[in-house]
Amino acid sequence: MSGTKNVSLWGGRFSGAPSEALDALSVSTHFDWRLARVDIAGSKAHARELHRVGLLSDEELQGMLEALSSLDADVASGAFAPQPGDEDVHTALERGLLERAGDELGGKLRAGRSRNDQIATLIRVYLRDEAKHLTGRVLDLVEALLLQVDEVGDAIMPGRTHMQHAQPVLVAHQLMAHAWPLMRDLERLRDWDRRAAKSPYGAGALAGNTLGMNPQNIATELGFDEVCENSIDATAARDVAAEFSFIASMIGVNISRLSEEIVIWNTVEFGYVTLDDSYSTGSSIMPQKKNPDIAELARGKAGRMIGDLTGLMTVLKGLPLAYNRDLQEDKEPVFDQIDTLDVLLPAVTGMVQTMKLHTDRMEYLAPRGFSLATDIAEWLVKKGVPFRSAHEISGRCVALASATDRELWDLTDEEYAGIHEELTPDVRTVLSAAGSVAARAGKGGTAPERVHEQADVLRRAVAAMREAL
Ligand code: ARG
Q1: Residue 283 falls in the annotated catalytic set
Q2: 3-class SS at 323?
Q3: Nearest Cα residue to 177 out of 466, 465, 444, 358
Q4: pLDDT attached to residue 369
Q5: Is the separation of the CB atoms in 128 and 222 below 8 Å?
Q6: Ligand 1 proximity of 28 Cβ (cutoff 6 Å)
Q7: Cβ 87 under 6 angstroms from ligand 1
Q8: What sign does the dihedral 83-84-86-87 (CA atoms) show?
Q9: What residues does 356 pair with on adjacent strands?
Q10: Which of 86, 105, 1, 94 is nearest to 42 (CA)?
Q11: Which of 55, 67, 396, 427 pairs as cysteine with 100 (C-beta 3.0–4.6 A)?
């Protein structure tokens, strides 16, 4: 059933139709249509409340609910869709309702509500639902990282700061350093939901409604915990969207950081990883190329999502209370982020799941580049040398090895003794990557037993997060 009748939600005080230019600027159905089914759920709750206060008879309520259900089915199947002339999702659905319930009954639904409280409600219901899907997809990625954690066991790699060899770390430790930020993003989403779980419905245009309706009934039906305290705030504020947008951007940034490592690891110079053929691409001219496009797209998409957040914040910053039409611009940024993460996360998860890490190469490089220099200094400290001197002495070892193109363990006992009398031959006990990581045994450190515990904690956190979904 696709009507041709033009429906508007306003017009009584106007003598002419809107200009084409206004229509073209104003229309939002191309993006807000995704809220249609939530809008209908809100309308059903609203109809029940109109009935409760005596503004719809039993029979009218039944007719209204039937019309709304048939409209919902047609929206779901695609049989009913917005047409040119429908200003927004609410207008299109009003047309659909009038077509099904008739002008007399259909015309009763709008009493006691405004598009202002409606749209503020719909975005919350929609985002709360999407946040759950997003959480599931982020957990998939964390689980892919955990799969690699199992795969690499206690293998050691160079840990870096400033991109330079710093200290050896467990590969598993490094992988989980990408998992924890994602887990915090999920905690952020969970915490955000407490604020998003308040319903603006009943705020009307800005000041509340006069028909004796109880907004809590509608809130409960739509899955909210409570009703917003202030009707002006309820219709005007979009910090709920902005906060969601920040979390989405942060997820994008965290995926981008992981991806950047994969891009680097995937070079011939590093040789840490081979990506599965099904998660890499070729070059149209260079036959040898196998490119980490997923990781690169992840970096690029993070930029795009930060743009969404910035755009949204900029829309909000100068608005007086209460509703202003600028607020229509709150939707595309968050929808874009949702759609972006929707395609990005499965691809990144697949790439991480299927990549082959070359732990032999990592192990070979782990102690090189003088990454054990701190261990020499701390070994001296344990013998009573002040750290300031120990740092200096170890630095001299590095200078000698570097000048003669050797590694620290290549220096002779005599050379060590020549640098400082405390540098006895048993300094060699700390000149291995395994010794270095084992020594870092405090909580949060890279010693194998700490890393095993950490993996257990992470696994339990993932399970708890899944459970809560
Ligand atoms: N399409 C509008 C939006 O997304 C709905 C609210 C319109 N309200 C109004 N007073 N014109 O914000």
Answers
A1: yes
A2: coil
A3: 444
A4: 92
A5: no
A6: yes
A7: no
A8: positive
A9: 274
A10: 94
A11: 67
Helices within 53-114 (DSSP H only): 58-77, 89-106
Q: Cα(5)–Cα(404) distance, rounded to whole angstroms? A: 87
**Beta pairing, strands 226-227 & 198-199:** parallel
pLDDT tens string 270-281? 999 999 999 999
**Residue from 52, 184, 205, 45 nearest 125 by CA:** 45
Check pocket membership of 328 for ligand 1, CB cut-off 6 A: yes
Pocket residue to mutate for ligand 1, from 26, 116, 206, most atoms within 8 A of Cβ: 116
Cis ω for the linkage preceding 237 (within 30 of 0): no
Give yes or no: 69 in active site: no
> H or E element: which one contains 25?
helix 20-26
pLDDT for residue 2: 45
**pLDDT single digits (tens) 166-216:** 999 999 999 999 999 999 999 999 999 999 999 999 999 999 998 999 999
pLDDT score at 6: 79
Evaluate: CB of 335 within 6 angstroms of ligand 1. Answer: no
| 383's tokens | 């013998």
pTM of the complete model: 0.95
Q: From CA 452, how far away is CA 237, in angstroms rounded?
A: 45
Two tokens at 11?
A: 């017009």
Task: Tell me the average confidence (pLDDT) per consecutive run of 10 residues in the chain, 469 residues long.
Answer: 67 87 96 98 98 98 98 98 96 97 97 96 98 98 98 98 96 98 98 98 95 96 98 98 98 98 98 96 85 97 98 98 98 98 98 98 96 94 96 96 96 96 93 94 98 98 96
CA distance 320 to 236: 9
Active-site choice (19, 30, 162, 284): 162
Length of the chain: 469
Ligand 1 mutation target, pool 90, 328, 335, most atoms within 8 A of CB: 328
Compute how many other C-beta atoms are within 10 angstroms of the C-beta atom of residue 302. Answer: 23
Query: Is any ligand 1 atom within 6 A of the Cβ of residue 30?
Result: no
> How far, in Å, from the CA of 216 to the mean position of ligand 1?
23
